[in-house]
């Protein structure tokens, strides 16, 4: 919140009581983000390890970050641009 308090930024997140900060709800669809996990191919974990990690990660995000089940994953809105390594 330092940049917000300095008047140099806005922030998105759960409301937190802080002197000098005004929180306003956003109208429309909630902000969403995609959470991914990656590991080196040479050390790729076994399927059970991935499944176990996924269960813990989903539970943690639901309990601490407000993640909810929204059905299908939203379509990625990425288009190639000059210079992209894709």
UniProtKB/TrEMBL annotation:
It comes from the Bacteria. This is LysR family transcriptional regulator.
